[in-house]
Prior knowledge:
The protein is an alpha+beta fold.
Amino acid sequence: MKYFFLTVVFSMLLFNSCRTPKDVSYFQGIENLTEDQKQAMAQKYVPRICIDDVLIINITSPDRESVAPFTPPPYGYYLPGEAEIGISATTQNLFTYIVYEDGFINFPILGRIHVAGMTVNETIRMMEEKVRESAPTAVVNVQIANFKVGIFGEVKLANLYTIKTPRISILDLISMAGDLTIMADRKNVWLLRDNNGEKEQVCMDLTDPAIFASPYYYLQQNDMVYVMPNKAQKRNSRYSNEDNFRISMISVIVSSLSAISSAILTIRAQNRN
């Protein structure tokens, strides 16, 4: 009976240390949200240009000669009557502009232009006003070329991802990473952000549907997301391979003692009868 009691206690300890955490579901209670709460979660996000961004800026017009001074080669040096040369992977870098630490870019003819903190559409409108003073039919196109976000920790595919669209949410990034592992702490997901030199750290709870209303739900370029391990994973990390072997051996011994105890109890019960 003594051995049986010890077996039960030890088995319960093993079960508690290895059991799956309960908080593995996203957005718990989302089905109970009111309409007002759902409307409060609706938000629009437009990324803003940051220091060290690389911008692709193209200026086109039916009157190609009028915009030629604003465009680098190959467009800037074509001869009248020649076919326009398209942008290839090898020439596209000629149309990129770095946002320097003071927030300015250096653009042909227009000179230094401050763009940091502006949205892409705001930059387009501002540049079109300047260019159309000499090229009335000019059309400006601006793209952020280096929109990258990273995710690491308890995810299946930790990586630095290049984003093709101008907007990405924390859930989009998690989907790209193949979802969180079962050992992830869904209440402890950290967003690391650099706001023009100022570091910012924010903890997000993915089990709370209020995440949709968070100002950090949509990511900025160069954001890094770190998914913390849950308590079970932290406990497991304390054990070495030798410790795991010992625990396995103890588990085998306890299982054997349990079987022996059960057999002894069965034999005693039969003898009493």
